[in-house]
Every structure is written in C-alpha cells, then in structure tokens.
Write a structure and sequence with these properties.
The protein has 431 residues and is an alpha/beta fold. It is 43% helix and 15% strand. The protein contains 18 helices and 14 strands. Strands 1, 2, 3, 4, 7, 12, 13 and 14 form an eight-stranded mixed beta sheet that branches. Strand 2, helix 2 and strand 3 form a beta-alpha-beta unit. The protein is globular. The chain starts with 10 loop residues before the first helix and ends with a helix. This is Extracellular solute-binding protein. It holds the Pfam family SBP_bac_1.
Length: 431
C-alpha cells in the first residue's frame, strides 16, 4: 500500500512535548559474529562539539550496558545528509540507525521498504515519557518508523544588543513592524537579517512561514494529501516574500552565504553580531553558540514568533517546525530499536537537550531547558493552536526540492511567485 504522506503535527497534542568509514552498509551493517556479537552503524549530523561528544558518550554507555553490541558512528554534515543517506538506502548499503525527520520524506523511505516498523518495539516507558505527539511525524499508515529526539519549532532569533543599538524596543508582531525594524537596523548600519540562501532551505523557510500565515491549516493538510497547490494563498505567500525581499532585509551576499558552517554563515553572522536576526528552527541556539568567539551561548540571544500578515487565514499563533529523530533500516538487527529506546531515557534526553541547546522530545527532560530564547520558544509552542511540519518535510523530497529551488530563483531575480507555484505543481504531478 502506498504510504500516506499527509502529516501535520497538532499542538493540541504537542502541549508538554516538545569522513565515511569502511564500516556501514549491508556488508557489515547489523552483522552478527559467530560469538553472538552484533555490529551496527549509526549516521547522525553532529560533526563537532558537544553534540558529537553526546553521541559518542551515549553509544559508549549503550555498548557497556549491552556486551557484545558495537556501534560504528559516522558524523555527516547536515547539508550532506539527505543525499548521502538516499544513495546508501537505494544501494542497499544503508546504515542501521539514521537521522530522520518524518513527513513525506520518511514516507518515501517506508514505501520503498527501507525502514523498520518500530511500533511494537517502542517500550511502554518510552511511550509514557514522550507522549503521542512527537511520534506523529514518524507515523505512516498507522505504524511508527522513527524515534523522536527533539522538537524544533521555528521563529526569528535576534540580538537584543543590536536591537537596542538600533532603537528597537519591542519585537515585531506584524510584517509591517518587521519592516520598520529592518529599516531602523539599516539606519544604524547593522545588517538586519542573516540568510544562508546558498543551502536553499533557509531561504525557503521564509516562504514556508508566509504560507503558514496566509493558508489555513485545512488548506495545508489537504495539499499534503492531494498535492494540489491551486489555492490563492500559495501564490500570496510568494508575493508576500517578494515584497518583503524588496526592502533589502538580508545580509550582503546572502545568495552565496551558507547556513550553519563557519563564522561567515548566517548563524555565524548572528553569533558574531554581524547581523541582527535569523529565521531558523530551535536547533539554532546550539549552532550559534558553537560559532561565537568563545564557543559559548550568545548572551543577548532572543526569539520571537514569525509575524502576522494582514488578512491571512492561518491560525493565530500557529507555528511551523519539525521533529528530529532516528529510524532503523529495514535490515537492522533488533538491537537498533533497543538503542533508540535507550537514547530517549530521561538521563540521555537531558544530556541531549544540554549538548544541543534545544528542546527534548521527552516531557520528563524539559526542566533542563534554561536558555531564555528556548524558554520563549517552548512557551509559544505550548500555546500554539497547531504546528505544521516544515513544508519540504511534509510534502516530500520532490515537491520540497522544487519549492526550495523556486524560492531561491525568485530571490535571485530569475523567477516569480507564479513560478514557485508552477514548479511545485509540476513536481507534484510527477509523483
């Protein structure tokens, strides 16, 4: 049966949740030795710092608790993960444990028979700690194919010091107010908004959020099922972004700026007070902290929700974001599920939240969140009427890639809002 790709996470249930090695692949992935040992491979996207150390320590603890089981870790840069993983899955050389974000992308993997059904392998303790909501993004045709690790709603991170320097005393609640803030920052010779459009998806996030404000929840959910993007709100979102981009709010050279790698990335510009704002998910405080001069959290980091638009049909306070988690390949050994249950125990969820400076999926671990910006995210998240998945996740790789590319083309002057909608419709028609 064709896997259903229509997935939207409702905040009504989300309240309270929130170098390639020679190992890996079918040759030795999940292999069992004659002595009863089991070897697994694990791909994640934490290539440096506390996040990388967290996974090394967690794997070591699991191996100690499970003699005879070994896990070979491969840390892959986030922007390279999707391509490398898809190649590995299609070649039959998949890692046993791999990063997954649910939605249509995971549905494609499930449809291809490449992911393990975890429904009956998730322990009662895990279910109780995480609740139903975080699993929604990983549920395909009623079965669960991923273990949530963190919930990652998006919004605008900003430098309180730079806002004060520009005379901005209140965070914007409407797009008009955001445009006013942009102008004040420019008048103070401060780059208003950092944007890593080289990686496409950060630029597309701006379209996603305008669509979240323009389109109703029903329209977005129906599009996930039907792949029909003829509703006026999809075009209006592009027009909103085109008009906003016309105010020149983004950093110089944003079309060739990367998102999260190095001091010159969009996250690095905010980390080093070279720009005042960045639209990003709840992983951003951790990335920003890794790029400050002392590699410590940015002391003046704040956050506010994406502003409202006039006449939009989106729910007041609705949010967009994702759920990061991990799946097991279809041929992985049972110990893969054991590892995922192990990694979401309260002790490790607390360590995860601290290492990544993000919001853990486990309700039991949320008390360790102390970053002021993340506390603001969590408060807004728990009050949101609903939370939509990132659109490129929700609608799958083909539609998502067409959408992301269409947005960048428009920002680069080689496309229009109509072209975005046409590209998305064309990609959907090929599925």
């Amino acid at each position: 049966m064709k896997a259903k790709k229509a997935l939207a996470v409702s905040a009504a249930v989300l309240v309270g949740a929130v170098g390639l090695t020679a190992c890996g692949g079918s040759d030795d992935s999940g292999s069992g030795g004659g002595d009863g040992s089991t070897a697994m491979t694990f791909w994640h996207n934490s290539t440096t710092g506390d996040g990388k150390a967290f996974w090394e320590d967690t794997v070591a603890a699991f191996e100690e608790a499970n003699p005879g089981v070994t896990i070979s870790i491969q840390a892959i840069q986030n922007e390279d993960m999707d391509g490398k993983l898809q190649t590995a899955l299609n070649s039959g050389d998949a890692p046993d444990i791999f990063l997954a974000r649910g939605g249509g992308k995971l549905a494609d993997v499930v449809e291809a028979g490449q992911a393990m059904d975890l429904t009956d392998l998730i322990t009662d303790d895990t279910k109780a700690a995480l609740g139903d909501a975080p699993f929604s993004a990983f549920t395909i045709d009623g079965s669960v194919y991923g273990m949530p690790m963190s919930v990652l709603p998006g919004g605008i991170y900003y430098s309180k010091d730079l806002f004060a320097q520009a005379g901005i005393t209140e965070t914007p609640t409407t797009v008009d107010e955001l445009e006013d803030a942009v102008q004040k920052l420019k008048d103070a010779s401060i780059q208003p908004i950092a944007l890593g459009a080289k990686d496409a998806w950060p630029a597309a996030h701006w379209y996603y959020f305008f669509a979240l404000r323009e389109c109703s929840q029903d329209t977005m959910d129906e599009a996930a099922a039907s792949k029909d993007f003829s509703a006026d709100c999809w075009l209006k979102a592009g027009e909103d972004l085109e008009a906003f981009a016309g105010t020149e709010p983004f950093n110089e050279g944003y079309l060739t700026t990367s998102a999260q790698q190095g001091a010159g990335s969009s996250a690095g510009l905010l980390a080093n007070h070279q720009a005042a704002m960045e639209l990003m998910g709840a992983w951003d405080p951790g990335v920003i902290a890794s790029l400050t001069p002392d590699q410590q959290p940015l002391a003046d980091l704040g956050w506010f929700p994406f502003p409202a638009v006039d006449g939009g049909e989106g729910g007041d306070g609705a949010m967009m974001g994702g759920v990061d988690g991990f799946s097991c390949s279809a041929e992985a050994p049972p110990e893969c599920a054991d590892f995922l249950n192990f990694a979401v125990q309260q002790e490790y969820q607390e360590k995860y939240a601290t290492a990544f400076q993000t919001l853990p999926a486990s309700k039991d671990a949320q008390s360790v969140v102390t970053d002021p910006a993340l506390l603001d995210v969590l408060a807004a998240y728990n009050e949101a009427p609903y939370v939509q998945l990132w659109l490129d996740t929700l609608y799958g790789a083909n539609v998502g890639n067409a959408l992301n590319t269409g947005v960048v083309n428009m920002l680069a002057g080689s496309g229009t809002p109509d072209d975005i909608v046409s590209a998305v419709a064309g990609a959907a028609a090929k599925e």
